[in-house]
Design a protein that fits this description.
The chain is of the alpha/beta class. The protein is built from 16 helices and 26 strands.
């Protein structure tokens, strides 16, 4: 049986089959909807309103009822738990739409050193007489001879992709050659003077691409979007499990990320008024699991002890190997990883921060779905991974969302003691949810007011605290007549914050103990969340130990992306990245003596009264 879904206000008709899961249909048709838990029915974020008369299968007695949400008589259902049995008309509210912030991580506007070994050369059209007199019996030999005659350099035409390109270009046309060292990388008919490259940072949540000028070192354009693999779960373990669920899933996961990068590449080229033929190289960074999925390697070994990746140093791929919509033979450098859970993004961040050349002890905290820590200087570098989970990026939080327009990024208390907030963007619409920085602020504010106890319990002494345990919640922003929902914080949300902040705090303390470092000269927070949160509030909730604030404290939006750009543009930076990966000492903090006890101790929030007294004394 064939069914149709009408989706106002777009009036898009989607074909589906009887009994299909609604979420599967929406994702297949590229309809943006959240599914933070990967369609497992746990997050409650894939909500839709179904018009009266819509044909869907009723929930069984064994299934939990959906949240009580009503809108003009429409039925609220979770798309992942809705089977279609006939025609339906549905609406996806803003809160449940997967929104993107195309400014995320894209603000790198520096000029970098450009010494990448790529050269472009215009090879004049071949005259028929020369073709006969040169004595070469084949095209490959003639090209190599012509280049030598033109520039006095002996080069090799060994790339199968470049040979194929040459074979399609008429001999009487001039050709733009791209070569690196003594090897021809590509050949394009006509005159192409621009030399560009791409650097990509593949995060568990966000993917960003930078278009760079390979001659000047300028970043010309950038584009970012949500990693589409999130439909299979918001953390790396969920993606590993998904890739192991059947032989057909790994290629799907690879195609999802490759197609997204192709979209971002196209966006960047349009911004710079450039073409694919102008691109000569690419570099890619990311965590270990994301790089495995991007390159088509199974991450299964990372999911079980001893958590080993397939490779630490990836082979050099071409664009054709990976499915990138660029000239087929251009090289794609995937940066090296340290371990299963300390990836190339950590190496790239350490490279961008010049840790290998610094006398000062630096702590880099790349805070996202997976927290990565780099500690050290030129005398020694240590790294660790913290299982912070997705809470800092809106995952597993009742009203959580990514840092997108319309999400609350900051909470505070005004002079009258009232909670006030600030959203991302200038929209006057009701907020869609709370992003990670707003979540930390909210907990810090509620701790200060005494509405959350150091144990994490919610006190019931306030008018806007509703229901009883375990469903007690604090209303942060009341529902209005125009809004579809209220913004609140639940006891479960607070537990997620406690787990995330304890993982980070105990991870930093364990890394300091293991390395023997007692003083940090500079702390750098990076990543979409790490560059946005308020360090004072992070300290107020116990997310960061005092050692992180002894020296200079700075925020950088995306050090990993900056490191990938450096590797793309500079041969010396490329070599340094591999040196870093070799020198970084990985610390499995969960196996360190005392870590478990430290983690449990750090689950408790600091007592705000004691904290205020200490501040007054100091």
């Amino acid at each position: 049986m064939s069914c149709k879904i009408s989706r106002p206000p777009f009036d898009k008709i989607l074909e589906t089959e009887y009994g299909e899961i609604l979420l599967d249909v929406l994702e297949r048709e590229h309809i943006d909807i959240r599914s933070d838990c990967g369609g497992k029915g746990r997050c409650g974020k894939c909500g839709v309103f179904i018009e009266p008369g819509g044909h869907v299968k009723s929930l069984s007695d064994a299934e939990d009822p959906p949240p009580e949400v009503e809108k003009n008589g429409k039925t609220f259902r979770l798309a992942c738990r809705t089977r279609i049995t006939g025609d339906i008309t549905l609406e996806i509210p803003r809160f449940y739409s997967r929104l993107s912030d195309n400014q995320s991580k894209t603000r790198i506007k520096k000029r970098f050193t450009a010494n990448n070994g790529f050269k472009r050369m215009l090879l004049a059209a071949e005259k028929p007489l020369n073709r006969i007199s040169c004595g070469s019996s084949n095209l490959k030999a003639r090209i190599e001879e012509r280049v030598f005659q033109a520039c006095g350099e002996r080069i090799r035409l060994d790339s199968v992709h470049a040979i194929r390109e040459f074979s399609k270009i008429p001999a009487d046309r001039e050709v733009t050659l791209v070569f690196r060292g003594s090897d021809i990388v590509s050949a394009t008919p006509g005159r192409r003077e621009r030399s560009l490259g791409f650097a990509a940072d593949i995060g568990t949540t966000t993917v960003v691409v930078y278009l760079c000028d390979m001659i000047t070192g300028d970043v010309l354009a950038a584009a970012a979007d949500t990693n589409p693999q999130r439909r299979y779960g918001e953390d790396v373990i969920s993606r590993i499990d998904a890739s192991n669920s059947g032989p057909a899933v790994l290629p799907v996961l690879q195609n999802l990320i490759v197609n997204k990068i192709n979209e971002l590449i196209k966006d960047c080229l349009e911004q710079a008024d450039a073409a694919c033929d102008d691109v000569d190289a690419a570099s890619v960074t990311g965590n270990t699991v994301m790089l495995h999925l991007f390159s088509g390697l199974s991450p299964a070994g990372i999911g079980t002890y001893p958590y080993s990746p397939v490779v630490s140093t990836f082979p050099e791929f071409t664009a054709s190997d990976l499915g990138l919509e660029l000239k087929k033979g251009i090289p794609v450098r995937i940066m090296p990883v340290v371990s299963g859970f300390v990836g190339a993004d950590a190496v790239a961040a350490a490279l961008a921060a010049d840790v290998l050349r610094s006398d000062d002890i630096c702590l880099i905290a790349d805070l996202g779905t997976n927290g990565e820590l780099i500690l050290g200087n030129k005398e020694g570098i240590w790294a660790a991974s913290c299982a912070t989970g997705p809470a800092f990026e809106g995952g597993h939080i009742a009203c959580g969302t990514r840092a997108v327009p319309g999400s609350v990024r900051r909470f505070d208390i005004d002079s009258s003691g009232r909670i006030v907030y600030e959203t991302i963007g200038t929209s006057d619409e009701f907020p869609i949810g709370v992003c990670g920085s707003g979540l930390i602020d909210a907990v810090a504010v509620l701790l200060k007011q005494g509405r959350i106890l150091p144990s994490g319990r919610i006190t019931g002494d306030f008018q806007d605290t509703q229901a009883g345990p375990p469903d007690r919640k604090i209303i942060l922003i009341p529902r209005t007549s125009e809004s579809e929902h209220e913004i609140y914080l639940t006891l479960k949300d607070i537990r997620q914050v406690q787990l995330a902040k304890a993982a980070l705090s105990s991870g930093i303390k364990t890394l300091l103990k293991k390395s023997g470092v007692s003083k940090i000269d500079k702390t750098v927070f990076t990543g979409a969340f790490g560059a946005a949160f308020n360090p004072d509030n992070a300290a107020a909730v116990g997310m960061l130990p005092p050692e992180a604030f002894y020296g200079e404290v700075v925020s950088e939006e995306n050090l990993a992306g900056e490191g990938a750009v450096r590797v793309l543009l500079d041969v010396a930076a490329d070599k340094e990245a591999f040196a870093l990966a070799d020198q970084i000492q990985y610390v499995e903090i969960s196996a360190e003596p005392g870590f478990a006890d430290q983690f449990v101790a750090d689950l408790t929030f600091p007592d705000p009264v004691e904290a205020r007294n200490k501040q007054c004394i100091s």
